[in-house]
């Protein structure tokens, strides 16, 4: 068994200890060939749970600061993590992603760029969607529902709740080699992907679920401010 397979089992065991996990739509993940796996991001648990239940190996974009300790510098490459700099242009990551697409691999990106503070879907990073348009591989939206209730960003400890992971039907944006073609297709692609994530992610939170301090009690449909940066705004 590979290290990746071993840690998938560890992640699945950890997930079941913290949540009642339900998974639907695994058949929507291609059995071969390249694809992008695009989940929403509610909790620190999301990457662990999503990769544990995904039927294919996924190379996930991971913020470079996670590689700071000796343990994680050893562990994360074995989980096929790709270090990326947040809130700035990272052309090296783009080259790595395009190479993986050519090699027929799966790539995981959390397009909101960071965990939601209130459980709602945040605006998608335009640079991430530009990469999807440049690569042209099938895009699998993935709705993670309930991980916010297990361990929200503002909480110090988890509580056991139900988590649903829903792999949606592939979206095909086509390959756009020219920058001007990508810009023309960008807003439409963002709208389609956002709609898919919202549909897979709802109904979102049950009444009475905890709300982030200072959030005003609003979760579903709350509009967040656009992110400060993108993966590669000039793709």
Overview of this protein structure:
By secondary structure, this protein is of the alpha/beta class. It has one domain (about 5-200): Glycerol-3-phosphate (1)-acyltransferase (3-Layer(aba) Sandwich), CATH 3.40.1130. The protein has seven helices and seven strands; from the N terminus they run αββαβαβαβαβαβα. The chain has helices at about 5-20, 45-55, 70-80, 90-100, 125-135, 145-150, 180-200, and strands at about 20-25, 35-40, 60-65, 80-85, 105-110, 140-145, 160-165. Strands 1-7-6-2-5-3-4 form a seven-stranded mixed beta sheet, sandwiched between helices. Strand 3 (about 60-65), helix 3 (about 70-80) and strand 4 form a beta-alpha-beta unit. Helix 1 (about 5-20) crosses helix 2 and helix 5 (about 125-135) crosses helix 7. The longest helix is centred in the last third of the chain and has 22 residues, at about 180-200. The N and C termini lie far apart (about 40 Å). Mean pLDDT is about 85; it is low at about 205-230.
């Amino acid at each position: 068994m590979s290290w990746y397979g071993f840690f998938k089992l560890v992640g699945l065991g950890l997930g079941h200890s913290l949540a009642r996990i339900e998974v639907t739509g695994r058949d929507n993940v291609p059995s071969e060939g390249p694809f992008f796996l695009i989940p929403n991001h509610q909790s620190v648990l999301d990457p662990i749970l999503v990769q544990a239940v995904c039927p294919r190996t996924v190379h996930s974009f991971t913020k470079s600061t996670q590689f700071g300790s000796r343990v994680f510098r050893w562990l994360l490459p074995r989980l096929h993590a790709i270090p990326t700099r947040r809130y700035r242009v990272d052309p090296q990551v783009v080259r790595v992603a395009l190479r993986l697409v050519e090699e027929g691999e799966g790539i995981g990106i959390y397009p909101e760029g960071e965990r939601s503070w209130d459980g709602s879907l945040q605006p998608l990073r335009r640079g991430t969607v530009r990469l999807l348009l440049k690569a042209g591989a099938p895009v699998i939206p993935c709705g993670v529902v309930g991980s916010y209730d297990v361990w929200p960003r503002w909480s110090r400890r988890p509580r056991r709740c139900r988590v649903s992971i829903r792999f949606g039907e592939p979206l095909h944006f086509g390959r756009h080699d020219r920058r001007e073609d990508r810009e023309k297709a960008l807003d439409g692609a963002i709208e389609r992907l956002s709609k898919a994530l919202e549909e897979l992610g709802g109904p979102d939170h049950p009444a009475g679920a905890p709300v982030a301090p200072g959030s005003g009690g609003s979760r579903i449909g709350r509009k967040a401010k656009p992110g400060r940066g993108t993966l590669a705004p000039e793709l």
